[in-house]
Amino acid sequence: MQIFRFDQQAGREIDRYDSVNAVIARIMRTPGSVQIGCIHLRAAGVVGYHPAVCPQLFLVVSGEGWVCGEDRKPMRVAPGQAAFWTTGEGHESGSETGMTALVIEGEGLDPASFMPLLEL
Predict the structure, then answer these.
(1) Facing residues of 54 across strands?
(2) How far is CA 110 from CA 55, 60, 76, 116, in A?
(3) HSE (CB half, 13 Å, CA atoms) of 91?
């Protein structure tokens, strides 16, 4: 067995798109070009508004915060909830108190075929 890290200390600061208090720890890239990472947003953290380069699934695992799409209307998210953005879709995420999310990016992602939608 081997033990690996994906905590904040194993990651790097996200400094693009006017992001603040945000760290990404890369987990893996599959042969099919799917990338998996872990984003750690500290208090008052933001991953700034930018277009998704491919389909992206943002799965909140701890803390709470907000996400928005092209309408720039923030929606609250908490553990067990996920946001999905399509290729080219502008999006942003942030947290007042801190949030950790797994991020899966890659062509062919379709979470609607597996996960139930949150009723608003």
Answers:
(1) none
(2) 8, 17, 22, 12
(3) 19
- What is the C-alpha radius of gyration for the chain, rounded to an integer number of angstroms? 14
Question: Exposure of 31 by Cβ count < 10 A (0-12 exposed, 13-18 middle, 19+ buried)?
Answer: exposed
Looking at 45-117, list the stretches that DSSP marks H as alpha helix, in order from N- to C-terminal side: none
Tracing tokens 């923030």 back to the chain, one arrives at: 74
Per-residue confidence of the chain (120 residues) as pLDDT tens digits?
Answer: 999 999 999 999 999 999 999 999 999 999 888 999 999 999 999 999 999 999 999 999 999 999 999 999 999 999 999 999 999 999 999 999 999 999 999 998 888 888 788 766
DSSP string, 6-21: -SGGGSEE--STT-EE
What residue ranges define each of the domains in the chain, with the CATH number in brackets? 17-110 (2.60.120.10)
